[in-house]
Amino acid sequence: MTGDDHLIDLPRLEDWIGDRLPGAGARLTAERMGEGNGIANALFLLRRDGHEWVLRRPPPVKNHPTASDTGREWRILNALKGTPVPHPTPRLFCEDPAVLGATFMIIDRIHGFTPGVGLEPPFDTDPGARRDLAMAYVDGIVELAGVDWVAGGLEGLGRPEGFLERQVGRWVGQLDGYRTRDLPEEPFLCEWLESNRPTMSPAAILHGDYSPFNVMVAPGTPARLAAIIDWDTGTIGDPLLDIGHLLARWTEPGEEPVLGPPAGGVESYPSRKEMAARYAERTQRDLSALAYYEALALFKLGVILEGTFARARAAGVPAEENPMARSVPALFRTAAAFARGDRE
Q1: How many CB atoms lie within 10 A of CB 319?
Q2: Are residues 331 and 211 located together in one domain of the fold?
Q3: 151 pLDDT exceeds 50?
Q4: How does pLDDT run across 137-150, given as a tens digit for each residue?
Q5: pLDDT tens, 204-217?
Q6: For a 10 Å CB count at each end of the chain, is N or C smaller?
Q7: Crossing angle for the helix pair 240-248 and 272-283, to the nearest 10 degrees
Q8: CATH code at position 334
Q9: Domain hosting residue 83, numbered range
Q10: Rounded Cα distance, 128 and 95, in Å
């Protein structure tokens, strides 16, 4: 192990794995992947006898007790076996916190890249490949919306009845748990979301945080998702919230990015309307209330990220050094723009 933190006890992990993964008896190594702090799950690349896996466990600090639910993620990944939805193959799940201090799971390593900020060739220079990549994002949740979640054993994972009716109250309640400042447009958004709530689309598996930051793209063309990742906020609910989340964060030429532009800039990508049309055509779901889902997605994301702001503020981080000081108000303002029809 690299020894960069205390989140993993390698000898104890090795004893727990034993012969349940290939390479028993060979040396197991673990290397931290990605950022070493923040609210994201902690990831470790495991290697043994030429085999590679990824271990996922919750971070030391969570914004809310329901965040980073590894058991939920494990259930969803197993339900996706045999479906067209690209996902990591689950291997082992440990619900005994005595092993590593928290529940964790081990999944196959996915080879590809995450297009959150940058793009790899040919997507960085080929306009056609870039357009196809954006449509591949859409196709991922098209396939997800078509999965038979009952047959996959996901009954009880969420409460689809009344899903939309609960959303505003749930997220305002979470915000009240760490509220430190007034947020622009919050009263308007709460009232508008309650007054303009559509009839829920037929229930399906909902990723809950779907964006290019939570997919991995296979190398080369044609554009193809190697896997959708980070399923710990997944549930059974209204799948239109996934397309709403993807499109609400999407930036077109001439627009102010809500968080940041698509990887590689805004050129050569399709518009939100084109991406929505593809989703509607392939799923046959009604997107006439898309603005509602876009506004709700940004409202929800703003509430979650305000927890990050509040935690940093409590630790003494000055507002000018905390990116959430500006990002969260921007999310609320953009959510209101979708609600008012100023952004389409």
Answers
A1: 12
A2: yes
A3: yes
A4: 999 999 999 999 99
A5: 999 999 999 999 99
A6: C
A7: 170
A8: 3.90.1200.10
A9: 10-108
A10: 45
More confident residue, 152 or 68: 152
Predicted confidence at residue 69, as pLDDT, reads 84
155 and 285 in a single domain? The answer is yes
Final residue in a domain of this structure, among 80, 108, 136: 108
Which DSSP letter does residue 269 get?
A: P
Residue 126, CA distances (Å) to 91, 131, 223, 307 in order:
36, 9, 11, 39
Give burial (CB, 10 Å; 0-12/13-18/19+) of 256: exposed
The H helix count followed by the E strand count for the chain is 10, 9
Q: Do residue 191 and residue 52 come from a single domain?
A: no
Number of domains in the chain: 2
C-beta of residue 42 within 8 angstroms of C-beta of residue 16:
no
Domain end point (choices 108, 138, 171): 108
Tell me what pLDDT residue 44 has.
Answer: 94
Beta strand spans in the chain (E): 28-33, 42-48, 51-57, 90-94, 104-108, 204-206, 215-217, 225-228, 235-237
81 plus 145 within the same structural domain: no
